[in-house]
Every structure is written in C-alpha cells, then in structure tokens.
Amino acid sequence: PSIASTTTNPNELMIRKKMVEDGVIECVVALPPQLFHGTTIAASLWLLRAPVGRASPVVFVDATSFAGGRGVRELPPENVAHITRVVSQWRSSGQLTDEDAKLATVLSGADLRSHDYDLNPRAHVVAEGARPEPIEIARKLERLRRELVDLHADVAQVDVDVDAVIAEVCRWNR
Questions:
Q1: Cα–Cα distance measured from residue 147 to residue 40, given in angstroms and rounded to the nearest whole number
Q2: Which pTM was predicted?
C-alpha cells in the first residue's frame, strides 16, 4: 500500500532509509486507486535494483490520474506505455524531458534524506495547477518546524560560543 512509502513507523522508516542509502530503489510509481479487486486504496509500484552501496537518484512517477472506468479501474495500454517511456527515457539518459516533468521527478539521496525518506510520488511530483494534499502540507510543515527548532538551538550555541570568545578577548586586554 502507498502508506508504506510515507509511514513514520520507526521500523518502516529504517527499511526505507536503508533501501535509499544502498541505492536499491530505482523508481516509485503511484498508481490510481481501485486498480485491484477487493481494495479501493491506491498502490505503488517500486522498481528495485541490486544494492550499489550508495544512495542513487530515484525517479518518482505520479500516475494516479491515468486510470479509466468505474468500480475496479484499468490502466489503458497507452498510459502503461507512457509510464514505461518515462522510466526508459530516464534509464537511458539520466534526464526527464519537459513533458515527462509534468508526470515525474528525480530526487537525489540528499533530497530524500531531507524529506525523511518519503517515497510517495505524490509528495514530490506536483502537477501543474495542482495543490498538495493536506497531509503532505502537514508533513512538510512539521519537517520545517523541526528544522527551525534545530536552527534555533544552533544559534543559541553560537551565541554562547561568541560570548565565551568575547570574554576571553576581554581577559587578554586587562
């Protein structure tokens, strides 16, 4: 399920972190909901590779708008071909075309670290005119809040260090 790509469960987060840091994840495709009998949730397709021992770029494809039909939906062959072309293009050139960038994005290991190893394509691929989901906004705000708290702590420590240096300089001048 898609939740496996974003959950804050420490064990699942550690698995995602290890997979990213070992370069195992090549691509994550967010599929539309209701593609499978018995469930209405959206699924994600993870393309994996043998570990390379370092974080490698990951392609994120948001194909959630690609399904047609009512009830159990289907991915039309032309949409499957579009997803395949995007991934193949990236594999062969390491680049996405401008057209592909409407559907996909590539994040480095550093980017994924800064996003707490969130592997949900919908968190990274923003369609033109689309607004992020409230849960994604909340996660981003929480990440920024934590970063701000850390920065405040750093500033407080720098203030203490500067005060100590000034006090030391003042003692020298006496």
A1: 36
A2: 0.69
Nearest alpha-carbon partner for 86 in 67, 100, 68: 100
Give residue-wise pLDDT tens across range 114-144: 888 999 898 888 755 555 667 777 777 888 8
Contact 41, 33 (CB under 8 A): yes
Q: Token match 């989901």: residue? A: 133
DSSP 8-state code for residue 2: G
CA-CA distance, 86 to 29, in Å (whole number)? Answer: 11
In angstroms, rounded to a whole number, what is the distance separating the alpha carbons of residues 35 and 3?
16
Full strand arrangement of the beta sheet holding 42-48: 42-48, 25-33, 58-62, 104-107
Q: How far apart are CA 9 and CA 38, in angstroms?
A: 25
